[in-house]
Fold:
Amino acid sequence: MHPRRSAQEVLLCDLCETVPLQSHCELCNINLCKACVGEHLSDLSKDHKVVPFLRRKATPNHPKCPKHAEKHCELYCEECNIPVCTTCVSSGKHKGHDMSDILEKLSAKTESLQKDLEELEKRIYPRYEEMASDVQTEKSELETNYEKLTTVADQQGEILHREITAIVNQRKSAIAGMKTKHLDALNKNTEEITQKMAELKQIMSDLKSILKSNDVSLTSTYKSRNSEFRTLPPKVRVIVPSFSPQKINKDQLNEMFGSLPPLSINTEHGDTMKSAEAVSSPPVKPLLDEPRVTATIDTGYRPLYSVSCLSEDQVWTGGDNETMKLLNLQSKLLTSIQTKSGGLPADIAVTRDGDLVYTDTRDNTINLIKNKQIQTVITLQGWRPCNVCCTAGNDLLVIMDSDDFTQSKVVRYSGSTEKQSIQFDDQGRPLYSSGGYSKYLSENKNLDICVADYNASAVVVVNQSGKLRFRYTGHPSNTWQSFYPRGITTDSQSHILTADYVHHRIHILDQDGQFLRYIHCDLRLPWGLCVDIRDNLFVAEYGTAKVKKIQYL
Structure:
């Protein structure tokens, strides 16, 4: 099966529940396969009426009246809260009571029951399972920790039998070693900060020269590095250990001599400061009541999969062939580049420096295009790179599938170096579904990693350390509709936007996974998404091969 297509649902026999249905009994209102028809007709107590499934008629399923056996209940007494027949009504026992149609009441009750069942199955029971699993984990950790305490007590007993001179020498050696390591850590931190300060001085000097020169060429080619330096270097904080001596004499050798705490060097992540633009801008951009399409780009693909913003009026696109196109808002082709392998690009993304990155499943590579030259940055073994995004820290996040499509994971790269791998939750369960080419990702402004998992019908969000924050499975009120997320992106407000491919709309969520609004804009099979620096949304439509630019804030 093509990796971008899904199977249609098959309706099964109500009796055996394994074979596709072919017939329908209008008397019993059940669906039957060919083999089960004979078994059903063997019940001679009823005058069954079996017809082909497509020729079935709607058969009202009125319950029999418990008080008048020959009658069926066609009404429902709202005051007594029971089904009743016409004889019950004419008897006068329900005089003045409000009556409703039994099938309408059944439909309303059935819908309510279905919602209760779905909430129990998808939301409530899984939380109980998770709690039960957490308790088992706590019990296991409790056993392990108490075993460690016992081991420590045994080891301390052995240590206290050593000669006092040996203990003193060990303590002195430990103190000297800690001092050296602390000094090394502080010296290294000083060198890192000094290096950054030197770079900043050079950048400030260069900026002053550019501003003073009033040179258009220098000004237009300047690329800002402010965002790189807004994240401060890690701050090393050292803690000098304390020594707790105890009185020791020949009669009390079992008393504790004293101990040093373990070496403590705490590295705190530097604060991410807001940009000057963010500080001066209003804190919130409200959502528009009526999002509007401001431009439409015809890409020429059939179909179209990917879109990534280079600027407010230029986008890179990828579709059904090996060529990636840079287009403006007037659909004019500005640049085109072919993949090195000749295969389709699985996904594309634009780096902070404006270079293009693409993934290629034909040779399992991740490639960087700089000045129209293709450089293979990463070649994978045993894994296929699918979708990719560039982070605020200039890393690459790549979601990939194992060669046998049984596993999926998100990997963070700095250049060609793997820095992080995200695959399982705290209980060792896979975060993402199996099956290839069906997951899309983006980094949020709060550094959460957001994955649209089509096979799982969910958006899976983890924090920057890879810990699961939440799963979004569609608007809570739409219990009768499935959720089919494809592309995903985020904006300056930390909104999460994902393309509901089958239902032709975009879901907007807040950073905690709460549904805010739909975007419709007459979309047709929305697939790829991206947002520019002004929070304009670009939507790649699979079937029409058009990119729509939408203002929604």
